[in-house]
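Q: Hi! First time doing this. I have a protein sequence and I read that you can turn it into a structure. Is that right? Here it is:
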Amino acid sequence: MIIENSGLNGVQSELGHLDEAAEKVGFVRWQWEYYRATYDLKLTDRTSGSDYFLRVNTRAVEGKLENPHAVLNIEAVYIGRSTFPHGMEYESPIPKHILETATQRLGQLKQQLV
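A: Yes, that's right. Below is the predicted 3D structure, encoded as structure tokens:
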């Protein structure tokens, strides 16, 4: 599920600052390569035992990710349910309390970056 109203799409930040801000809110820079990085936040639904990942997708617009001064642009924010063993499923409905937590954490991240 793409989260359209996060207020983060198009926000730019230096890699070092984005890493620090994301870590404060609980995100981890997980997948990355020279020009692209994904920040993930794991959210667990205690009633069903399902794991959900809130993902912030970024792309370098200046420099490469090996440089903390590289500038990244946030391209998309989305959430999906983890599937065994390595997949993500983006079509299933997200429980309301998981979506509320995701929205709260995105607001905290936005506050750190703006």
